[in-house]
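Title: Comparing notes on inverse folding

I've been comparing how different people in this forum approach sequence design from structure. To keep things fair, I'm posting one structure and asking everyone to reply with a full sequence. Here's the target:
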C-alpha cells in the first residue's frame, strides 16, 4: 500500500474523523467523496475529557474522490489557518467501514452529504 493511500491513512493509529458522502465501502465500485480529518490530541483530552479539559483540533485534512474501485487523493492541507476553515462534525459516531480488501474496520465519522458539500466550497475558496 502507498503511504498516502486511503487505506493506509484510515488505519493510522492517530485519532481521526471521517466525513463521507455515503457509506464507506472501499471494496465496492461505488462513487463516494471522503474527507479524513486528522485530530491532534491536546494534553488532557485523552480518555474521558475530565470537566471538558483538553481540546480537539484538526491538524490535517485529506480529501479523496472514489469511483470504480479507486480512490484518488485530491486534497491535502496541514496549514492551520486553512484547516481551521473546515467545520468539525461533533456528531461523529463509531462507523463501520470496509477497506479495499473487504476487511471491516471501525472509525469515528459521519455520513453527511451537507458537510462534504461545505468542505468542497471551502476548498474552492482556498484556491
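Reply #1:
Here's my take.
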Amino acid at each position: 500500500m502507498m503511504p498516502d493511500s486511503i487505506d493506509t491513512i484510515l488505519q493510522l493509529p492517530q485519532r481521526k474523523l471521517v466525513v463521507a458522502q455515503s457509506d464507506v465501502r472501499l471494496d465496492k465500485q461505488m462513487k463516494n467523496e471522503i474527507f479524513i480529518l486528522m485530530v491532534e490530541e491536546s494534553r488532557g483530552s485523552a480518555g474521558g475529557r475530565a470537566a471538558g479539559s483538553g481540546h480537539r483540533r484538526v491538524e490535517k485534512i485529506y480529501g479523496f474522490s472514489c469511483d470504480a474501485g479507486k480512490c484518488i487523493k485530491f486534497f491535502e492541507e496541514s496549514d492551520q489557518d486553512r484547516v481551521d476553515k473546515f467545520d468539525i462534525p461533533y456528531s461523529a459516531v463509531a462507523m463501520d467501514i470496509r477497506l479495499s480488501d473487504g476487511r471491516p474496520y471501525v472509525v469515528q465519522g459521519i455520513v453527511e452529504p451537507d458537510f462534504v458539500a461545505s468542505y468542497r466550497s471551502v476548498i474552492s475558496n482556498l484556491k
